[in-house]
Amino acid sequence: MKHKSFDHxxxxxxxxxxxxxxxxxxxxxxxxxxGLRRFNQFEHSLGVSKNxxxxxxxxxxxxxxxxxxxxxxxxxxxxxxxxxxxxxQPILISMTHWGDKHxxxxxxxxxxxxxxxxxxxxxxMSAVSEDGRMLRAxxxxxxxxxxxxxxxxxxxxxxxx
Length: 161
Prior knowledge:
By secondary structure, the protein is mostly helical. It folds into 2 domains: 12-86, Arc Repressor Mutant, subunit A (Orthogonal Bundle); 89-139, no CATH class. Helix content is 39%, strand content 9%. A hairpin with a 5-residue loop joins strand 3 and strand 4. The longest helix is centred in the middle third of the chain and has 14 residues, at 89-102. It is globular.
């Protein structure tokens, strides 16, 4: 199924979805964060067709999220996260936490994120105030920023009281 493009939308969420909103893309990113680097590793992990995997990897490279480079120990290239790609980690962790809470497995969490230095589990992802307080959804509101033209009265953010 062909999806509608979000390129015309002046919305940060829509622009993010335009790049990473496809489910195979998110699972490829999950695998990269878990240490996979090679095409055949992604193919084996995901069970996705070669043409879809190639398309998604190329898109991530073209967007500057992954870098394709020669592997030191093989003729096969590897894919590594760029700084832009590393910035996606909180999104993936947050989605994983949501899944554990709202689509749990009967045996508990499927993965536990821990701080590398201490081995201690991290808190669930959430919004944090400037002074470090944890905020709930009802504590937040969206306000139009400078890039959102006031003339876009149909935009839900521009209308938020």
